[in-house]
Amino acid sequence: MARDLNPKCKQCRRSKEKLFLKGERCYTPKCAVIRKAYAPGMHGQKMVRGFSEYGKQLEMKQRIKRIYGVLEKQFRKHFSEVSRKEGVVGNLLMIRLELRLDNVIYRLGLADSRQGARQLVNHGMIVLNGKKITIPSAEVKVGDAVGMNDVKKESTYFQERSKVLKNKKDIPAWIALDISKMEGKILSEPDVDSIGVNADPQLVVEYYSR
Predict the structure, then answer these.
(1) Residues 40, 141: Cα–Cα separation, whole Å
(2) Looking at the 3D structure of the chain, how many domains does it have?
(3) Mean pLDDT score of the chain
(4) Which of 97, 122, 203, 210 has the fewest CB atoms within 10 Å around its CB?
């Protein structure tokens, strides 16, 4: 599986905002955006420049890719898939990214980052509709149930996560979480306006439409 190996903190600094790529660390004073609020590199502190229209489009594409941990080839594939559907392409792209299995696991609170969610899937610790799945990019659909592999539920990790879930209050409205089963059910497609991601997908549409 291809994955982005670039340092997570540098990605946030490059985007000039927290992308919450390292889970709990992002909420502490150790967050790199707090400690070094400038672009990475030896000239980072001196870089104060505007962007052309192309630059804005490229920067937005890169930001969304960083947030969801998707590389260029896969990101372009997602875009091609949604561009063939009826509707606003930018919104459809964000919905497709939100319905990735790794993102759903993160939204449920079963992992504190999307990278952590991908590791759970790769290690066979996640089931989709009762069947083990090892594809983090799999598309979850309305009515699907995502939960923990029963064999793994007694592990120390999931015992700790169950405590975290009891205090989790930011579960999206399009997911229903059953804490006792550590399982979430997809109630509807995500509402683009309430996803909570600082991004303008229309700029991505313009980028690929050049």
Answers:
(1) 38
(2) 2
(3) 83
(4) 210
